[in-house]
Structure formats: C-alpha cells, structure tokens
Amino acid sequence: MSTSYEAAGVDIAAGDRAVQLMKSHLAKARRPEVVHDSSGFAGLFDISAVRRFERPLLATSTDGVGTKVDLARRLGVYDTIGHDLVGMVVDDLVVSGAEPLFMTDYIACGKVVPERIAKIVSGIAEGCALAGCALVGGETAEHPGLLEPDEFDLAGAGTGVVEASRLLGPERVSPGDIVVGLASSGIHSNGYSLVRHLLRETELSLDAIVPELGRTLGEELLTPTRIYAKDCLALAWASEVHAFAHITGGGLAANLARSLPSSCDAVIERATWTPPPIFSVLESYGRVPGEEMDRTFNQGVGMTAIVGASHIDATMRLLAERGVDGWPIGEVVPGSGSVKLI
C-alpha cells in the first residue's frame, strides 16, 4: 500500500497558495535596505546601513502572542493577531533605544488554510509598517495530529540597532526623574489565560454586548496591541529619556522595576489615570482581586518613559504632537530598585 505526505495531513499545494496570497501584503513591510533573495530560503538585509553609527549595537527580541490566538480562532478574526505579534517584539526592542530594522515570523497550524494564513500575515505586515521595520521572511508549518485543523500559534523575532552612546537603561536613571505613562489600547497580549479562565467560569461571553464597553466582549478583547516604536524613538531623540519599560506580563510594577537601578525606587500615583473599562469589567465579573489585576494586566499603561524632570514639558508636547495619550504617573526617588503604587 502506498501513502503520501498529503495522506499524513500535510498539503504542500495549500502552503504554496498561502505564500502567493501573502505576497500582496509583504510590500507594506519593506525598508530600502531589504535585498531580494531569489531563492526564498532567507531574508537579506543590507547591514551597511549601520555605517552611520559610530558604534552600532544590534538588539534582538523574540516573542509570541500567547493564548490570545485562541480567542482569534474562536471568533474567526485573523487580521489583527499579527499586529499583536509585532507590538510584542518591536516594543521590547525600543526599550533599549534601538530602531527596529527587520522581523521574521513563524506560524504553526493544524491545517494550512491559505486565506487564513494570508490574513494573519497581513496583520504582521501592517504592524511592521507602523513600526518602521521590514518583514524579511517567515515560516508556515503544518502540524497535523499535533494541532487541530483550526488551531494555530505564531511567534516572531526582530532585530534592531542602537548607537552605543545612546543606549537607554537603568544606568541613566536617577532620583528626580519623572515617570510618564503611555496609554495602552486595552489588554494588549498578556493575561489571556486568566481571561479564558473567566470566560469558562463566569457568565461572560465573547459575543455578548457589554454596556460598559459599548461593543461585544470579543471585539474588545481582540483590540490589537498598540505599537509604540516610532513614538518612543521620537522621544529618545528629541527629549531626555533615560529609560523605557514595556508593560507586559507581570504588570506595571514588575516591568518598570526592570528599568530602575538598585539605588532608586519609582513611586506611581494611581490617581493620575483611570484604567479603560475592560479592566473593571474583568475585575468585577470575575471577582479578581486588585493585586491580581496589577500583576496580570497593564491596567491602561502599555509603556513608560523615565524622563529628566527638566524635559517633562518638552516630552508632553511631543507626545501631544504625535497624538499619543501620555501623562506623568510618578517620580523616581532614592530606594532599592522597587516600584510603589500608591
């Protein structure tokens, strides 16, 4: 008896069609340094572009979207989840002050549905365009028997560059600096295991219109992660930014602490902002303790910038000019490297 790869569940023809459908989207995510590789086995990037740097440091980051992909699958919405992937990767890169140069992606699925893969990649390409980086390659893998036909997961890796003398981080932070919060677009891409638990254990439903949100819960939960890359880079060049912190898993306190030296604390005033309604909805419907909300979600602050006090007015003007909702949320004081929410 003969058999085949297709009989084992892998459809090479569908993979080829997915590649063809992707091509129309990839043009959105290019930079002039991208070099065409006719073989298609690798992405090429002309690194001579970094000659403008005296001492260029390459920065790299890799991440995924986590269990948010399960909600995208259940709702049949695939064109935003790639946007989330880019945000998770490039917004880590810019914390060091690095300019994102290029990304690659990896999509694993139980069955290649070309149109679905193309929609995912369209979101990745749009996210890269927003971040100013190129999507130079990727891989789509079909895993029959390991994943159900409608299941998928995605991850990505990005590379950026920063001038060594402009590297941002805890070493630049000192008492008197001001912590500026940049508004999140919602939950972003962290805490969805808790969200899915609440969907199983409470009356919350993805297709229910929640009055506090003004739309269905599913629509709210699939709001794409905000991409701060270009705004952070603009701040780093035009203002005295000492450090950034990307607020992801662990919440505001844990992530901001990573950008503090051991000799400083950050005192954050909760009264300076009101978290978007989605956070209170999850907290109240799920009876989630406030401390757990703080540890799990960004609570409305997706990125922080630690800025020299004398530059806070210039920082706020630049954010306003760029249409970014940001505000002072606290101050750096002498301490031991911790964050205090008061």
Automatic annotation (TrEMBL):
Residues 175-337 form the PurM-like C-terminal domain. GO terms for cellular component: cytosol. Keywords: ATP-binding, Cytoplasm, Ligase, Nucleotide-binding, Purine biosynthesis. GO terms for molecular function: ATP binding; phosphoribosylamine-glycine ligase activity; phosphoribosylformylglycinamidine cyclo-ligase activity. Its EC number is 6.3.3.1. Pathway: Purine metabolism; IMP biosynthesis via de novo pathway; 5-amino-1-(5-phospho-D-ribosyl)imidazole from N(2)-formyl-N(1)-(5-phospho-D-ribosyl)glycinamide: step 2/2. SUPFAM superfamilies: PurM C-terminal domain-like, PurM N-terminal domain-like. Belongs to the AIR synthase family. NCBIfam families: purM. This is Phosphoribosylformylglycinamidine cyclo-ligase. It comes from Actinoallomurus bryophytorum. The gene is purM.
